[in-house]
From TrEMBL:
It comes from Tuwongella immobilis. Residues 239-561 form the DUF4139 domain. It comes from the Bacteria. Keywords: Coiled coil. InterPro entries: DUF4139. This is DUF4139 domain-containing protein. The keyword Coiled coil applies. Pfam families: DUF4139. Residues 633-712 form a coiled coil.
Amino acid sequence: MNFLRRVMWLTPVLGAATAAILLGTGTGISAPGGEKQTELKTAVGLPISRVALFSSGVGYFARSGDVDGNVRVDLTFPERDINDLLKSMTLEDFGDGQVSAVSYDSREPIDRTLASFAINLNNNPTLGQILTQARGEQVEVVLQQNVVGQPGTISGKIVGLETQKSTKGEDVVSQSEVLNLWCADGMRAVKLSDVQRLRFVNPTIEAEVRRALEVLSLNHDQQKKAVSLHFTGQGRRKVQVGYVVENPVWKTSYRLVLDKDGKEVPKVQGWAIVENPTDEDWNGVEMSLISGRPISFKMDLYNPLYVNRPTVEPELFASLRPPTYSGDIAQLEKAQQELAKGSDKAVDMLAMDAAPAGEGGAMGGMSARGGAANGTMLRKSMQDRRALLRESEERQLSLNAVQSAATAAKLGDNFSYNINKAVDLARQKSALLPIIAGEIEAKRVSIYNASVQAKHPLLGLRLKNTTGVHLMQGPITVFEGATYAGDTRVLDIQPKEERLVSYAIDLGTEVNPVNAFRNGNIVKVRAQKGIIFTTRRFREEKTYQVVNRSQTDRTLLIEHPNRKNQGFNLVNTVKPVEETAELWRFEMPIAAGKSGSLTIAEERDQQETVAISNTNDDQIRFFINQEQVSDGLKAKLQEALTLKAKMDNAKRELQKVLADIQRITQDQNRLRQNLREVPQASEAYKRYLKKFDDQEKEMDGLTTQQKELQNSEFQARVAYETFLANLTIE
């Protein structure tokens, strides 16, 4: 026996976690990207020191703290935030150090990540299973000193593990795992229960195990990913990391307190509602609430992207072989057409064409077998080509389906609320933070809009933002003294800007709107190139009858539709106090127990056109009789009637002649028929012939008259149309 086999018993050491403690004590880690290894001490996590929340659904978070020397800071984030992190993260080292790199977990499952290391720690392996994966590696084993004469330390390469059984008679009393090592003095066997400490001599294996343990420690939450920040430098210094990630929109709510007697200035309180949806407490953070709407979007930077590259086949030069001669071209073309259709018939046709001819030109025997073999190969080639074509099409479809998604918000004016005191907010908690407290200018009004409430106006306020800060949109709870008065809602209000709000129905005031309409009257007539332009003016009136049955005076704001885009203009009406794109607002004071009315008149001009050449005499006379038509235009229209009468007379005379010609033509057709039917020697024939001759003479006269009348009608029409073309007068 060439080696000494020793067996020593100690307490058992089990579990991957315990094995990790035994496997090494170094603190070095591998630099990202395969760089030279740098000794980095894991720093205490940087706490959140500043939070800035935006109303666009994102938040800026800053973490800061002091570090010493070369440091790695480990942070964890939900997987959904990694894209925002990669897009917005900034790191600063305020000392003489510098930011080395930022490493983060891939999107692969942790099982696949652990399997990529030299020692696979998946499925909670035992010490024996770990050592089995490291067969052939050099290890240094420290043994427990409970047996006299045993060595304290053994160094050797792992040969393998085996299980030894202790028996008593035929019964197995115990089993133990034994590590077989190839040492300098031969093979040694060490019970794992005797091992006090074990270390891999190979630093690469040691680093692999350490990195695998780091992955395990940072992935206790499967929904989170680890991000490591590497700072290199000397001495103690401050570092900071900032990033923008998705966060709930912060909201505002207001309380407005009115004095019942109206003697004191109204007071407003504004509260911000913020949420901490993270798994980390905010302790003593500096908080800012920003009411702007910066453009914010998501981009997929986490998933790896690959560029589709073309595959280029290498050019091959085949050696010369005995030539073969193809068959009929017509058959080859037909086979190619079948191939394009995907038919298997093409395979047989091409196989026959590719089959070599037998000796002496024979077409059986060898030729047939060669054709069958070629057909099988060609059919396999076609199937491969079709599969590649389908794969190429599917790949192209999948690439086309990849679109950058992108989301954009409306811009707005930025305004920041800085909380004066540090904020403490536990994780998964929400808080109300006071942001506004002071006086605000407000005037009581009653707002009436028929489309909102047909009978009663709404109690409201004309707010003027005298707080000096931007008021973000949100609900307002109104109190009169200590009594709840109602709720309202306000949009964003800039400093010094005024805005109306309503919070209750004014049951003490009634409004009855009465409508009145007038048909359109002609107010203007003009002519341009023979076209009459008529302007009609339509008038609408609406009277608001108001009764104030309450014991206090009211200032009524009547909201009336603004129809400027429909051509309506206010006439003979009090000037509105406000004008918006949709409404006019009229102010009307009503004393307690009194009534009153307000009439709003609107007019709209509508233009109509009439072409004189297409109208009749009565329509022209209608315009001549209108008072709004100028004397000059009346004279021109009268002249147009005269010219039109000449043209109409010429048309009538011409139509009469044409009717006579048509009558004679029809009668001559009848005479011709009769002349063919009766004998030429009969009296009837002579009578028909004489009448036919008389009609021919009459037809000659009518034809001459037709030409003269056509010329007269043409001259009259040209004169009329020329006159109309030059008829332009206001």
